[in-house]
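We modelled the chain as a single entity of 72 amino acids. Its sequence is:
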Amino acid sequence: MLQTLLHSFAIALPQAAGSTPTPASPHTLTAAGWTFMLVSVGGVVVWTAWCFYKVLTAPEANEAPPPSGYGP
């Protein structure tokens, strides 16, 4: 999988002058594919970070103590 990812990056980079262009593999992503993937992964990462922030910075709950006879 890493080899495929590196190969797709190599194809996306501009070719050096005088070099033979590499034929496109059927497993390469188009620009729209890269954009969609990066926006999707970025959105999930941002949403996860926001959720962690909200949970970890939540104020302590002001709950009433349980009725007598419950707990230690």
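As a brief sanity check on the tokenised model: The first helix runs from residue 2 to 12. The chain has a mean pLDDT of 80.
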